[in-house]
């Protein structure tokens, strides 16, 4: 298939701002390229892409991330919005492609679905965070359910969907994932430093169990970071910043365990599988994507609150790091992911 990807209109890709969407995009291309599929990727000006794909930079006004606004905020776009230009490019060049894959969590490309002659499929990267986007997803699920896929059942369940949906999960190329059998007595937390990622919860747990907390990820809100530093003066915090993924895995794999403490409903949570695949157990809340990735008692624990999380730390430290690694690598291989993606994307091709 010749596949056109609409990536994200929120930030340039390959710069750390995109978080999961950057990694998911790379995983999709790396999964499907070996099967002979070819990619063209639309991304905002300034993007970088180290994958086997043609990158087309699209200039224009960037969209605001929906999670920074209230759920009732309407879709706002002007003639010079990046998402408008991406949709226009897709519409005028659609004859050159077999299928269009939209990864943007935006109303416009979803609403335009029936206006395209080349099938456009939507991979929904977040749970229900905005009413206008949710309305478009729910309407499309009534009309053309095959066109939408989610990363987890938990994420799909945040929408009012009448028809069955496709669950794609995520898949990873594990060949270069590091493994450390004798970790340091430190906790890891990975994510964008932004309120929906709930870093304060991990700090509360680190405080209760009196272990240092190493934090990787882009600071998206400096005021939020500052509030946390002031609120938890007694926690031994190590800010490691945003680092390229290979470096992240190398450094993070030396941690005794990872805490996953989002305030929102995480659509998937790449970090859980990445940590497990490096042998690091994960304790996560019993909600969202981690309920489908963490196997309690094998690759970590699912807990209801911060107190339970602190109480589970000692048990999680005893889990076999070999079992964590093997379980994650078996369940989320790039080969299985490629087959799921390929069958979903080819559903509407004549
Ligand atoms: N990541 C990275 N370097 C960092 C921190 C994070 O490459 O310093 C990557 C990490 O490997 C993961 C992604 O960013 O794949 C974050 O994805 P996730 O789904 O956990 O969160 P999102 O940012 O999409 O909410």
Strand line-up across the major sheet: 3-2-1-4-5-6-7
Give the helix tally: 12
Oligomer: single chain
* CATH architectural arrangement of the largest domain: 3-Layer(aba) Sandwich
Class per helix and strand makeup: alpha/beta
Q: What is the strand tally?
A: 13
Topology order in helix (H) and strand (E) letters: EHEEHEHEHEHEEHEHEHEHEEHHH
CATH-defined fold name of the largest domain: Rossmann fold
* Ligand catalogue: uridine-5'-diphosphate
Average pLDDT number: 96
CATH class bucket of the largest domain: Alpha Beta
Q: What Rg is obtained from the alpha carbons, in whole angstroms?
A: 20 Å
**DSSP strand content:** 15-25%
Distance between the termini: 12 Å
How helix-rich are the residues, as a percent range?
25-40%
- Shape annotation: globular
Uncertain segments: none
| Major sheet characteristics | 7 strands, parallel
Instruction: Provide the number of structural domains.
Output: 2
Report what the structure shows.
This protein folds into 2 domains: 2-171 and 333-345, Glycogen Phosphorylase B (Rossmann fold, 3-Layer(aba) Sandwich), CATH 3.40.50; 175-331, Rossmann fold (3-Layer(aba) Sandwich). Helices cover 34% and strands 17% of the residues. It has 12 helices and 13 strands. The termini are close together. The structure holds uridine-5'-diphosphate. Uridine-5'-diphosphate is lined by residues 19-20, 23, 190-192, 216-217, 242-243, 245, 248, 268-271, 274. Uridine-5'-diphosphate binds next to helix 1, helix 8 and helix 9.
């Amino acid at each position: 298939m010749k596949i056109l990807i609409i990536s994200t209109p929120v930030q340039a890709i390959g710069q750390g701002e995109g978080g999961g969407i950057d990694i998911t995009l790379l995983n999709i291309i790396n999964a499907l390229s070996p099967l002979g599929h070819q990619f063209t990727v639309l991304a905002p000006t300034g993007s970088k892409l180290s994958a086997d794909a043609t990158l087309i930079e699209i200039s224009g006004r960037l969209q605001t991330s929906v999670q920074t606004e209230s759920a009732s905020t309407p879709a706002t776009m002007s003639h010079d919005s990046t998402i408008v230009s991406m949709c226009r490019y897709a519409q005028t060049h659609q004859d050159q492609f077999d299928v269009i894959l939209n990864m943007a969590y935006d109303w416009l490309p979803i609403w335009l679905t029936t206006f395209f002659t080349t099938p456009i499929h939507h991979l929904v990267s977040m749970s229900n965070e905005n009413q206008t986007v949710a309305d478009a997803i729910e309407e499309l699920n009534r009309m053309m359910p095959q066109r939408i896929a989610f990363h987890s059942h938990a994420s799909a369940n945040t929408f009012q969907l009448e028809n069955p949906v496709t669950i794609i999960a995520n898949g990873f190329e594990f060949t270069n994932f590091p493994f450390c059998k004798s970790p340091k007595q430190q906790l890891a937390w990975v994510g964008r430093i932004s309120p929906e990622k709930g870093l304060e919860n991990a700090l509360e747990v680190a405080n209760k169990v009196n272990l240092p907390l190493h934090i990787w990820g882009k600071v998206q809100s400096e005021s939020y970071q500052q509030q946390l530093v002031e609120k938890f003066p007694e926690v031994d915090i190590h800010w490691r910043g945003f680092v390229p993924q290979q470096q992240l895995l190398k450094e993070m794999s030396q941690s005794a365990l990872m805490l996953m403490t989002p305030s929102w409903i995480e659509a998937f949570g790449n970090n859980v599988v990445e940590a497990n695949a490096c042998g690091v157990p994960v304790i996560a809340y019993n909600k969202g994507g981690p309920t489908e990735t963490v196997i309690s008692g094998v690759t970590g624990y699912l807990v209801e609150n911060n107190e339970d999380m602190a109480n589970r730390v000692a048990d999680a430290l005893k889990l076999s790091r070999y079992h964590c690694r093997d379980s994650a690598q078996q369940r989320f291989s790039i080969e299985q992911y490629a087959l799921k993606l390929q069958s979903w994307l080819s559903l509407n091709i004549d």
